[in-house]
Amino acid sequence: MVKACAGRVIGLGWGMDTAPAPADTLPPPSPKYLTNRELYVLAGATAVVVANAYYIHPIISLVADGFGISHAMIGMVPAFNQVALALGILLLLPLGDWFSNRRLVSVLVAAQCASVAVMAFAPHYGLFVLGSTVLGFFTIAPYLLPAYVSKRVAPGDLGRATGIITTGIVGGILVARAGAGVVAEYFGWRTVYFIAASLMLAVTFLLPRIMEPREAGNDRQAGQNYWRLILSIGGIVRDFPEILLSGAIQALGFGVFLAVWMGLGLHLTSPEMGYGVDVVGYLAVLGVVNLYTTPRFGAWADRIGPRRARLALSGTQLVGVAMLFFMGHSIWLLMIPIIMMNVGGPALDVCNRMTFLNRAPDIRTRLMTVYIVIMFLGGGAGSWAGTAVYDAAGWHGTALLALAMSVTMFGLCLWSFRWTDKTQAA
């Protein structure tokens, strides 16, 4: 009787003489969409987290000299980092469909902060490689955030929002490659990692305060366990096989990017070219164009469709890569293909992600897992191949390697139209 009276009192307070509906019968609350300010803050935090893997690019020769190792051996640092990242994404990223992304991010960025500190103080090459490899394993936050953001934006705004987050990734890569070279030239390569550790410490406290504590679609279902969650990826791939094609295209694109920049870091500082690592950093500043173009290409892909946009962008990158073979002798001529690659590469990533980030919210993180694992396996291969081929055949060998990978990527983008038509017909 007391409960009934209380119900009537509450009802009268709202202007109706009925008890409130039980909680389990209420419709789910509408998703809280991210503001532009929140999107850009997340993009900035993403930039800091992503940058850790790219500081090595312009300073690779200084680190090799500092530890007294060959150019072929130094390629193990980015290669192991990328492979460990692929493994970490496979084992850790699917947890984003279970647990609060904010909780996961808090743990992951703290582990990254510790790994960067190890690299800064490493007394020998083995510990430096170990720190870089562990860093890669825990670099999950930048690939958890796109799935998180996709649940917090209107469906028609997915391309633009994904473009903004990708701009953060691009900005982090840009600052890492440009800033690391200048800092290392004047203050030593270890200073680069001291600064990186300080930035990571700030992000460790910042990100959990920006993100919502829970997201729709990440509730753990009865009877599920960790290994069942991991094995469920196979069924998701079976239902959405296009993720394999998008991942393969991105793996080739990312592999080209890393192979070219690993080769450039060695080529420009070689006796033939005679530049310092700061010049490698200055050349990387050309990537600033991406901060303007990537969100706009995302919005363009919203209008014409991600597959058509992907084909056009892969063609642009192919033309740019083809120029590397003929323009490698001049730093001024190299700016032309580098700008073309900078424009096409990140926007291509946005288009690839758009092909699966419109799926059901409760599987997006696992789809992202498949995509990123494939991408970083390609990146690890490109990192090692870029230094190994340069060691064996010089800049022309690196350019030919990048060209072969770009031709294959363009062919897959073209074939995706026929493949998609078949799967839709089925």
UniProtKB/TrEMBL annotation:
Q: Give the highest taxon in the source lineage.
A: Bacteria
Residue span(s) of domain Major facilitator superfamily (MFS) profile: 38-423
Q: Record's InterPro entries?
A: MFS, MFS_dom, MFS_trans_sf
GO MF assignments: transmembrane transporter activity
Note the CDD domains from the entry.
MFS_NepI_like (cd17324)
Transmembrane spans: 39-57, 69-92, 104-122, 128-149, 161-180, 186-207, 243-264, 279-299, 368-389, 395-417
What are the entry keywords?
Answer: Membrane, Transmembrane, Transmembrane helix
Q: SUPFAM superfamilies annotated for this entry?
A: MFS general substrate transporter
Report the protein name in the record.
Answer: Major facilitator superfamily (MFS) profile domain-containing protein
Q: Which organism is it from?
A: Hyphomonas chukchiensis
